[in-house]
Write a structure and sequence with these properties.
This protein is mainly α and about 325 residues long. It has one domain. The chain is about 70% helix and about 0% strand. It contains 14 helices and no strands. About 0% of the residues have low confidence. InterPro entries: UNC79. This is Protein unc-79 homolog.
């Protein structure tokens, strides 16, 4: 039944987004829970709370968007305005990292809501036409990482946040394509898939640029790309099949820099590629992500994001007390 609870929350959406975006939120919650007698797991409670709040924010932004994306302009005014090439300094770098982290939680909330509700309600807070602008935010992080990562622990984790967001955005586009509105269905599916492909066409050159710095950077980037490929395979992503011809040569050309463990993981991905291609043909263009598989992946992603935020915050607090 209707409780009108959202009416109470609506005026606090900005504060809710600030809470989600705060890098130190989970550390503060964890510290508070150690003093409580509540039987809640301190390592996972914060992540569950953030995702729950992200679902509320995602639904509210979706509800307020309509055709002119008013809610996005109100709550995420920076979304369509990434830093220009002339503005990419330390300040812009850390702002982009913060924005990408917030977007990741929102996408996680959106996807979680869609899985829990079995797609019965639309939850698409970030318009697909924002894809190129979001890619530009990510490019700022990728280009600035070699220099800015030396600055602090928070900066060191920026590559993780960039690739986690890239995973979520790809799955988000795919899920948008799998549950389109009845009107202009084929056009919407095509737009959603093309949005993901365009995103990667814009971001990949910056990933390649990262890999020319040194051996350590090559292995770090390859690790993130392999994690990305494994994640999309785990979700039975059909977009992954379209992207693998671009990614495999990028990794294979740097095999000599990879550890034996990474090479084994890459081989496993290659062994599964034909199976994924077969699946995509059998699906006849339909998205094949099973909701239980997707839910499990979302839970794992949520845990990783929460743990990295906690670790970053705890490391930073050694130098800058909260």
């Amino acid at each position: 039944y209707t409780t009108s609870a959202m009416e109470c929350m609506r005026q606090y959406v900005n504060e809710l987004l600030d809470f989600i975006a705060d890098m130190h939120t989970l550390t503060k919650l964890k510290g508070h829970m150690k003093t409580c007698s509540q039987p809640l797991h301190e390592d996972t409670f914060g992540g569950h709370l953030k995702v729950g709040l992200a679902q509320i924010a995602a639904m509210e932004i979706t509800r307020g968007n309509h055709r002119d994306n008013k809610a996005v302009a109100r709550y995420l005014p920076w979304l369509y305005h990434p830093p220009s090439a002339m503005q990419q300094g330390p300040k812009e770098f850390i702002e982009c990292v913060s924005h990408v982290r917030l977007l990741s939680w929102l996408l996680l909330g959106s996807l979680t809501h869609s899985v829990v509700c079995s797609g019965s309600t639309s939850c698409t807070p970030i318009p697909l036409d924002a894809g190129p602008h979001i890619a530009d935010h990510l490019i700022v992080i990728l280009i600035g990482f070699p220099e800015q990562s030396k600055t602090s622990v928070l900066h060191m984790c920026s590559l993780f946040h960039a690739f986690i967001f890239a995973q979520l955005w790809t799955v988000y586009c795919e899920q948008a394509a799998s549950a389109p509105t009845l009107q202009n269905q084929n056009e919407f599916v095509c737009t959603a898939v093309l949005t993901a492909l365009e995103f990667w066409s814009r971001v990949t050159p910056s990933i390649l640029q990262l890999m020319v710095h040194n051996k350590l950077m090559v292995e770090m980037v390859c690790l993130h790309v392999i994690n990305l490929m494994e994640a999309l395979q785990e979700c039975n992503s059909t977009i992954f099949v379209k992207l693998i011809p671009m990614w495999l040569p990028m990794i294979q050309s740097n095999l000599k820099h990879l550890s034996a463990g990474l090479q084994l993981r890459l081989q496993s991905i290659q062994n599964n590629v034909n199976h994924h291609i077969l699946q995509s043909f059998q699906a006849s263009g339909q998205m094949s992500t099973n909701s239980s598989v997707l839910r499990k992946w979302l839970q794992c992603t949520q845990f990783k994001m929460a743990q990295v935020e906690i670790q970053s915050s705890e490391a930073a607090s050694q130098f800058y007390p909260l």
